[in-house]
Design a protein that fits this description.
Elements: H1 7-36, H2 40-76, H3 83-116, H4 120-133, H5 137-152, H6 157-179, H7 189-214, H8 217-220, H9 230-264, H10 266-282, H11 284-302, H12 309-333, H13 335-340, H14 346-378, H15 382-406, H16 411-415, H17 417-435
């Protein structure tokens, strides 16, 4: 592969990933919109329980991102025949990890939620949600393996098809199972969880069938001479483990943030989860570009062009800002319309509307910070990226706690702590890319 710095090439890799995030966020939006019409308890519970679930599966996604970086490096070096072993050993690691985390969710999540949830009603609903949703962890981890493979070799078009299928299946089964339409049982919050499990399973089947039919298995030695290689897995973990822990801590911070808000009140929590769903929609272009950034940086270094990484990063930042700014005016001009997609309750709309203005501004900081941070990950210096993440999280949570719990300021001010997080992450990442020792790192 020859990685070019052209905007066209960046779009070629990024656009399918962006579309895959569009489909993925349809899942998030529909879950929130449907449950917003069931009740504030269900909405808040699914939001908090969903974050806890995603905290745990971030261990699998973090491993997948690390594997994606190594695959990208081998792809840039034209060592295609070494990629299959990376995929095989990812299966050997992630499937047992999925079983372990399934057990953790089933038996330990009620205890954890009890320690941090003030409302008994939200606690009971959260446990109901996780009991069902936990079965989806097996499908999710297998999907991460396929995503890391296709993104690493910069063949990202399949991501659109798989996640679009997942989104459509989720919407259909949300409608059928949450409300009990067309003779299906009315399961409420458990229906939302089961719909997500079925959707993830459908995406997994698609990845398997597509790969078997279209991929040159001989070129990549994919599913040929499958062997567990401890030395290779240790090398993979050296890159992946900091990302796994980093993703785990980032989502843990997100959960802690909402636990802080839950201490303020049930209404504030429900309003914040509605804003979170809109926030995730605004992040769609950014997440697509950030995933492409890590892959393109790794491929570029594999080609011996590490001196061009900063130029590549700057171009992706510009594209990310441009794409994000397309969405922000709609949120600012029609805030009430955006919120009514999720709820008709006037008190929720009133509580959530000022926060929309905050996240619209923070997204600009986020674009610069997260693309720069993703470039650091792409260099393979994942321990550095972990330290950057931890520094931002530590100060972010202290700020949120002081604003919301200690000083008891308005919910809008609590959300302003986002600016603290992105300023720290972006500043350190940019300084490291400019002055750090990473250009000729081997992985």
């Amino acid at each position: 592969m020859n990685t070019t710095l052209s905007y066209r090439n960046i779009w070629k890799v990024s656009l399918p990933i962006i579309f895959s995030f569009v489909a993925e966020n349809i899942v998030n939006v529909t879950d929130t919109a449907f449950l917003g019409r069931v009740g504030t308890i269900e909405l808040g519970a699914a939001g908090n329980a969903g974050i806890l679930f995603f905290i745990l599966i971030q261990l699998g996604q973090g491993f997948g991102i690390g594997n994606q970086i190594i695959i990208g490096r081998r792809n840039g070096e034209n060592n295609f025949n070494k990629i299959g072993n990376l995929v095989h050993n990812a299966f050997f690691f992630l499937i047992p990890l999925a079983f372990l985390l399934f057990i953790v969710i089933q038996f330990l999540s009620p205890y954890f939620l009890t320690q941090f949830t003030a409302s008994d009603a939200i606690l009971a609903a959260s446990i109901d949600y996780l009991e069902v949703r936990s079965f989806g962890i097996f499908f999710a981890f297998i999907n991460f393996i396929y995503i890391s493979f296709y993104t690493g070799i910069t063949s990202t078009k399949i991501l659109i098809r798989a996640t679009l299928l997942q989104a459509i299946v989720n919407v259909i089964f949300d409608y059928l199972l949450i409300f009990g339409n067309f003779g299906f049982p009315e399961m409420g919050i458990k229906g939302a969880a089961l719909a997500s499990v079925i959707a993830a399973g459908s995406a997994m089947i698609f990845y398997i069938l597509y790969t078997e039919k279209t991929i040159d298995h001989h070129k990549f030695q994919l599913f040929r001479n499958i062997k567990f290689k401890p030395s290779l897995l240790i090398k993979m973990l050296k890159i992946s483990a900091p990302i796994m822990f980093q993703y785990f801590m980032a989502l843990s911070a997100w959960l802690a943030f909402f636990m802080i808000i839950e201490q303020i009140g049930e209404l504030e929590l429900a309003a914040s989860h509605i804003v979170r769903s809109i926030y995730m929609v605004l992040m769609i272009p950014l997440f697509g570009f950030s995933s492409a950034t890590s892959t393109l940086v790794s491929n570029l270094i594999g080609e011996g062009k590490g001196d061009l990484v900063l130029k590549l990063t700057q171009r992706i930042v510009k594209l990310s800002l441009l794409a994000t700014c397309i969405f922000i005016p709609f949120i600012l001009i029609f805030p009430e319309f955006s919120l009514r997609i999720y709820t008709n309750q006037l008190d929720l709309i009133e509580a959530a509307q000022p926060i929309l203005y905050v996240i619209s501004g923070s997204m600009l900081f986020f674009c610069i910070a997260y693309i720069s941070f993703s470039a650091v990950i792409g260099t393979g210096k994942t321990l550095v990226s972990l330290l950057i993440e931890m520094s931002g999280i530590f100060i972010y949570l202290i700020g949120a706690y002081l604003i919301g719990v200690y000083f008891k300021l308005d919910l809008t001010y609590v959300w302003c702590s986002e600016f603290i997080y992105f300023t720290i992450m972006g500043s350190i990442s940019i300084l490291y890319l400019k002055f750090g020792n990473w250009k000729y790192s081997s992985i």
